UniProtKB/TrEMBL annotation:
This is Glyoxylase-like metal-dependent hydrolase (Beta-lactamase superfamily II). Keywords: Hydrolase, Metal-binding, Zinc. Residues 12-191 form the Metallo-beta-lactamase domain. One of its GO terms (molecular function) is hydrolase activity. It comes from the Bacteria. Pfam families: Lactamase_B. The lineage of its organism: Bacteria, Bacillati, Bacillota, Bacilli, Bacillales. InterPro entries: MBL_Glyoxalase_II, Metallo-B-lactamas, RibonucZ/Hydroxyglut_hydro. Its cofactor is Zn(2+).
Length: 210
């Protein structure tokens, strides 16, 4: 099993593709540049099974319907952000872009921590609110990696000054959810390079003294 990071759009939001040896794949946070993303996945011969959203801010959802149009796959998002996909104020696109970014409703609403089995993939869904009310992280034990969205970055943490953000809740999510995973776990964040939990525990200034 392997993953690829594909930065998209003006904010260079990381879309990820998790690929099984049988060429089926999962797409995480297809944020924008849908034509580019669809073309790349098609060129690799991969077969998407689903779109998994870590949260529903505009820069993480903009290409969702492009992916759906090409492959007709289901979309997963946490129930706390089910209305954000079609609301340009809630997802921030009007506020930050001055334009509406809307996508069709999700097919599945995540509620509570659980294990998702999609094709050959098995992922633990961790509720990690704080950056936004419905932020989740997806842990793939087989890969030894967690798709953290905008919860934890290399050397930083997610912003909490947007609607529904809560700094204390974010730190609690990181410590009680992410940092309980094996310390060698690779963190695949929504922006910037990958890191590891061990590295963030040792060097991330936002986690010291919590």
């Amino acid at each position: 099993m392997k993953w690829e990071r594909i930065p998209l759009g003006s904010l260079q939001t990381n879309a990820y593709v998790l690929v099984h040896p049988n060429d089926t794949c999962l797409i995480f946070d297809p944020g924008s540049e849908g034509e580019k993303l669809v073309s790349y996945i098609s060129s690799q011969g991969w077969k998407p099974l689903a779109v998994l959203l870590t949260h529903a801010h505009f820069d993480h959802i903009g290409a969702v319907d492009d992916v759906r149009k090409r492959w007709n796959v289901p979309v997963y998002v946490h129930k706390n952000e089910k209305d954000w996909l079609n609301d340009a104020w809630l997802n921030g696109s009007l506020l930050f872009m001055g334009q509406e970014i809307k996508v069709k409703p999700a097919d599945y609403l995540l509620d509570g921590e659980q294990t998702l089995t999609i094709g050959e993939f098995s992922l633990r869904v961790l509720e990690t609110p704080g950056h936004s009310p419905g932020s989740v992280s997806y842990y793939c034990e087989e890969l030894g990696a967690v798709f953290s969205g905008d919860v934890l970055f290399a050397g930083s943490i997610g912003r909490t000054d947007l609607p529904g953000g809560n700094h204390d809740q974010l730190l609690q999510s990181i410590h009680e959810r992410l940092l309980q995973l094996p310390e060698e776990t690779v963190v695949l964040p929504g922006h910037g390079p990958e890191t590891t939990l061990m590295n963030e525990m040792e060097t991330n200034p936002f986690l010291n003294g919590f």
